Amino acid sequence: MRGDLVRKLAARCLSTGLAVLAFVVLALTGATDWGLALAVAALAAAAVEQRIRPGADLVAETALVAAAVLVGYSRRLDDGLDPALVATALVLLGLVLLVGPLRTAGNLEIRAANLLVRSWTPLVADQLGTALLGLLAAVALAAALVLPAVVALVASLLLGVGAGAVALDLARRRFRPATGGGAVARALRRHEPEFLLYFSAPPGSEYQVTMWLPYLERIGRPFVVLVREPEFLAPIAAATDAPVVYCPTLRAMDEALVPSLRAAFYVNHGAKNSHCIRFTQLTHVQLHHGDSDKAPSANPVSGIFDRIFVAGPAAIERYARAGVRIPAEKFVVVGRPQVESIEVRPEPVRGLAHPTVLYTPTWTGHHADADYCSLPVAEKLLRRLLERGATVILRAHPYTAQNPASARQLGRLTELLVADRARTGRQHIVGAAARELSLTECVNRSDALVSDVSGVISDYLYSGKPYAVTDMGDEGDRFVRRFPLAGAGYVLRRDMSNTDEVLTALLDTDPAAEARWATRRHYLGDFPAETYAEAFLTAARRELAPERTVAAPAGV
């Protein structure tokens, strides 16, 4: 999160600084060419800032750059007051003032992908800011080439006409909405979805949805994915053929929740989940996006859902252990369908000369009490693994790069493994190559796991292979009581003082092999391997049964 803040601040300083510098050079000096070059650089910086900060207000920067470019243009023409240049200035001023409000209005409109519907206005409104930056760059180029001012005027008018058309259509949508909803609502009624997957989360969290999409598709009923942040529309739509709808407002949700819907599935405890929970005609089902002994896995907010699908009895006990009281009838044990493709090793393999070890450090979390990240102390661990002849798959949590310190630590570990690969030829998998592999592929390629407290351990447990867990709170005996899954593995102390002892148990003797099978049933359910995912599919179809009672929608 701190890394995001640094990037945003740097982008803001760069775009603003270059805009001011371009204006000062063009308005107060005779260095017209240098000033125009700085103006183009400021526009490029503003475009970068738009990508880093999608909601950035760039009115001040674009106004400064526009004024600077027009001053430079006038100086290059050097033939007095040019009416075409004055008209260009007026059009540009209007565009600078309108682009932000139009983008905001466009972002309040419902949008869809994988649905036979045309909704061009919000998309165009969202790109008007980029179009304005391109127009200003073109005007700067026209000034540098000393083209007639009418060229800049024509280009400005073309964009102005487009912006005007967008403004009129958005006004029509707002003040004269179509009866029965807009085009997206009509298309959804034709699609007749029986359930929806509701999703709201910070950027980079789409993996929480994509892990469930194949199983939702296997339910065999039409459904829709409803997202609340625009950046998720494209990546999630690329991962499924089901319609994906972006609903920025409660009014848009009212439009998207068509009468055919019977259930809503959720994959996290996002604050905006309450916006959908209010629809009491639906059965609300929490799926989670992993099963772990982390504190968030026993979130009291789970109690607001009608059903809580859990992997095994251990998840139900986790809530009780945390003092969270939820009626037993809300829980449904469905296994963890994502593990069905994990290869199971029924017999322990001891004393491997050249094992492959999967290391999955988690991120630092939002709060100190949820920081289970082992990256600060991992170098000693990796060096010991290399001394034992291990090949390492280093697969860090997707959020790792958001913390600059964690990113640097991960970078050092990556350099260590790359250097060893060059020296020994062992094919360590790091960086982009590790992220390109699915977790299942990483599990299947490995002989053992070293992980922080996270949902990765539950998934790995299905394989029957050994694992070690890092005790980053230095809790000693209390650690296993807080995180029972660690009891079927081997616990690494924070100071890594027992690294050799743990690696011997993990890779050579494996004394916990028998205990892991009992833990596996407790955490992941006791379902046949050949039909493991059917438990989830059957439970999900049961929630879609038409005989379920239907209540009236709840008020806001």
UniProtKB/TrEMBL annotation:
An example Gene Ontology molecular-function term: CDP-glycerol glycerophosphotransferase activity
Transmembrane segments: 84-102, 123-143, 149-168
Recorded GO CC terms: membrane
InterPro entries, per the entry: Glycerophosphate_synth, TagF_C
Superkingdom classification of source: Bacteria
Pfam families, alphabetized: Glyphos_transf (PF04464)
Name under which the protein is recorded: CDP-glycerol glycerophosphotransferase
UniProt organism field: Micromonospora orduensis
Lineage: Bacteria, Bacillati, Actinomycetota, Actinomycetes, Micromonosporales
